Structure formats: C-alpha cells, structure tokens
Amino acid sequence: MFRLADATPIATGHVREVYQHPDDENLLIKVISAASIEQRWNDTPWYRRLARSGPYKDFVREFREYVTSIYVGGYESSPIARVVGLEMTDIGLGQIVEKVRTPDGRLAPTLHDWVKAEGFTRRTEQELESFYARLLSHNTIAADLHAWNVVYGEDSRGGPRLVMIDGFGEKNIVPHCSMNRAHNASRTKKKYERMLRRTRAEAPAV
C-alpha cells in the first residue's frame, strides 16, 4: 500500500488529487478526494449510486476506454495518456498513470495554459489537428473534451504532442457513442470545434 496521507498533491481537480508516485518519477497516482466522494456519491440520489464500482466508476470507465483506444488504433499513437493500473493507498484506491511531462521533467501544461503562455500559433494549430485526427482514428469517446483535460508534453511513447489525461470514456446510460462509430465521430467533431473556438478566443493577442 502506498502512503499518501502525509504527501502533498502536485495537482488538484474537482474530483481527484494527483500525487507523485513514490517509487517512480515517471508515474503519477490519481486518488478520488474524500470531499468528492462525499458530495458526488454519498450525498447523491440512490439512482446515481447504482454503479457496482461505486465512486470508482470513473476509473473503470477510463480503463475501458484506454484499452479500446489501443485495440482500435494501436498503442503508440493513442491520444489518451497511458493508464498503468490500480493500487491501494492509505487514502483510497489510486489510479496509476504515466506522467506526461516537459523536457525537464515537470508536469506538462494543459492546452489552456500552453496557449496562454505561447499564444495560438501555427504549431498550436498543427498539434490540435494531429490530436483531433488521433481521436477519430482511435474512435475515442471524448466525453469531456476541454482545454484543461488535454496537455502538451511527452512520455515513453514520444512527443511532444497533445494527450488527453481526463474526461474520456462513455458516460451515457444508453451507450450510444460506443454503439455507433459515425455517431461518436460527429459528437467528437462538435466538441473539438467548441474547444478550438474557446482556445482561440482565450489566447493572448499577438
């Protein structure tokens, strides 16, 4: 069991806390925060608590999508950050993922932060086009495609490139995106174009 109770998260989201893996600098551990479990699981209506995996249903959903991405389009070009596995920690079940990083080893910036820092350049446009093509070729279900769920960096598969680190997998009760590839591609196109518009609009003026 990994001891994280006395560690400081290196990143915090609405649902999860991200910790540096204590034994491998190239890995991270994502843990669902106690506050999130209380608010999004224990205090929700009964019908929202039907998942057999409980508050860890997102781990199951994301692992399924990661496996599907590799099966459909291959390992090297997957647009999803590498999911390594699950391990128990002293603050709950942890999802082990590979760190997408900058050349000096820091956490890769989100698409939002990357564009804020460097502007919306021709390179940004090319990287986004490549990322979108990989989403389609891998038939990825990008449930929450936003500029803060995508990072620009490198990992053991190469880079730098844009990689989705959160918000992937089928969330619908009726899995219509999983059932029809063309339908999923159409929804992905709309979400991508929305993200592209917002990223352009939020970029600093040059």
How many helices in DSSP terms? Answer: 6
Radius of gyration: 17 Å
Strand order of the largest sheet: 1-2-3-5-4
Q: How does the overall form come out from the CA principal axes?
A: globular
Number of strands: 7
Q: How much helical structure, as a percent, in the residues?
A: 25-40%
Structural notes for this entry:
The chain is α+β, with helices and mostly antiparallel strands. Helices cover 37% and strands 19% of the residues. It is built from six helices and seven strands, in the order βββααββααββαα. It has helices spanning 34-42, 57-73, 111-118, 122-137, 176-179, 181-202; strands at 11-12, 16-20, 27-32, 83-89, 92-98, 150-155, 158-164. The strands form two sheets. A five-stranded antiparallel β-sheet has the order 1-2-3-5-4. It has a two-stranded antiparallel ribbon with strand order 6-7. A hairpin with a 2-residue loop joins strand 4 and strand 5. Helix 4 packs antiparallel against helix 6. The model has no long low-confidence stretch (mean pLDDT 93).
